[in-house]
Design goal:
The chain is an alpha/beta fold and 309 residues long. It has 12 helices and 9 strands. The longest helix is centred in the first third of the chain and has 61 residues.
């Protein structure tokens, strides 16, 4: 009888232990769910705050009284672990791909692609395909691609026969996959928003070299001159060029003998890209605004938002 009672008590004890274990596991699971929900809620709160900070940065960057390099464009609070950074970048420092193609400056485009690694035939085919994409007719250029080619690829209503509305559209053109394989950062060279040619005061030496048909090492003298004696852009000793002829003369190019080269450049492009990144306790949000005539009567050309990991 006693042994039966002991067995019964032992079974009850085991059951209690199992019950405690199950309750402990349930408690741990519940705590994890609560912690996850808290993390999600915190991420949403911090993400919303980062978005607000990015908006604050955009407001400052769009202010015509704020100049590039102004310390007010970068703000950070150690106490609150939040802040924003704003960059003002001229779109004139890139090639306007629609302008290049409409002006039929195929030599410039071909030279660029050859420098990137494509051979002569490949570069000619890509440039002709780009031209066919934006022209208004269905007549195929010598090495181009019109509706018949894209239909063979199962792609209807292409090409669009109009200027590019975004650089992502450029990737749809025949041969651009090859360009991207050789030069993954090709977008860094182009824009669709600038008002004209390549702004010689804003462009990098590599782009100036292609447009002026000089060696990259030779073209470095242009941005070096613009930065002034201290070598830092957007400071008081900057010495931007006031004429294209002056800059080309420094490169050894005669604008009167090569008007085609002179036509590739401009000064004081009024299109500005405002990039604002807001940060709040590990969350980051980026807003990009492309504005024309920021210091006059501004017109918003493009606005994008993104979450930065």
């Amino acid at each position: 009888m006693n042994s039966g009672r002991r067995a019964s008590k032992g079974s009850a004890l085991v059951a209690v232990i199992w019950l405690i274990a199950i309750l402990a596991l349930a408690s741990v699971a519940a705590l994890k769910v609560v912690a996850f929900d808290l993390d999600v809620a915190s991420a949403k709160i911090n993400g919303f705050r980062a978005q607000q900070l990015a908006e604050m940065g955009i407001a400052l960057g769009a202010n015509p009284d704020v100049e590039r390099g102004d310390p007010i464009l970068s703000q950070w609070s150690e106490e609150n672990d939040e802040g924003f950074d704003v960059r003002l970048v001229s779109e004139g420092g890139k090639f306007n791909i629609n302008l290049l193609l409409s002006q039929e400056d195929k030599n410039l485009m071909k030279s660029m692609l050859i420098d990137w690694g494509l051979d002569i035939d490949q570069s000619a085919a890509v440039v002709d395909a780009l031209s066919d994409w934006i022209d208004a007719d269905d007549e195929e250029a010598l090495n181009g691609a019109e509706i018949a080619y894209y239909e063979e690829q199962g792609r209807v209503n292409q090409p669009f026969n109009r200027p590019f509305y975004s650089l992502e559209e450029v990737r749809l053109v025949r041969g651009m996959d090859l360009v991207e394989a050789y030069r993954p950062d090709w977008r860094r060279w182009f824009t669709i928003w600038s008002a004209g040619g390549l702004d010689i005061n804003e462009a990098e030496a590599a782009l100036i070299a292609v447009a002026a048909e000089v060696a990259p090492e030779q073209a470095t003298i242009i941005p070096e001159t613009v930065r002034g004696p201290d070598g830092i852009r957007d400071t008081e000793d900057d010495t931007p060029f006031t004429s294209i002829e002056e800059a080309l003369a420094l490169l050894g190019a005669d604008a009167t003998l090569r008007p085609d080269i002179s036509a590739r450049f401009t000064l004081n492009d009024t299109t500005t890209r405002i990039e604002s990144i807001g940060r709040a306790t590990g969350s980051r949000r980026k807003i990009t605004l492309v504005v024309r005539n920021r210091t006059g009567q501004p017109a918003i050309l493009e606005r994008t938002e993104e979450v930065i990991p």
